[in-house]
Model the fold of this input.
Amino acid sequence: MSKWERENDGKPALVAEAAKLATYKLFGFPCSSSEVTDPEATVCGMTMLGHVKHAEKQPEQRKYKGRCVVLGDVIKYLVSGDLAKLPSWVDVGEVATLEEVRTVVAWATMNGFPLQTVDLENAYLQCEFPFPHYLRLPASLWRLLPSRLHPPPGCSDPVWKMLRAGYGPPLSGHLFIKKVK
Done:
């Protein structure tokens, strides 16, 4: 780990995560929210989380991680500002609840079954978003994006159309399960 990374609380990890979002085409080019006229279009925020793994170790042994998280707990209609509901025409796959998964794992453990795990890196980014959904990014986050994804000068209230499911929207898990079936 470089001295710059230690002194800047892992900002390189955050920059790398933002660049990864651009690589995976999570969202399109920015536009002004006033340009969006579809009354069914929704919007939510996004934040960047950074943390240090192995904080108890010496600085050169720590690992800085960055994550972009879509704030899916408050999704609103972009035009009206009202809280949004899932459109009735969206076909979603079935998703197990965390309690159901814990029950299966507990049963398997108690009955001597070997457990294996699989981590599908960037799994939700494989799913296209099925209806117009936009992200409202704080300037502190969009400044980390490649310059081609910055809002044009004078753009008021920029929003980015979400092209892929990403982590955070409640619909993402359903879209992924539907895709892999």
Notes: The chain has five helices and five strands. The beta strands are 27-32, 42-53, 63-77, 133-136, 158-162. The longest strand covers residues 63-77.
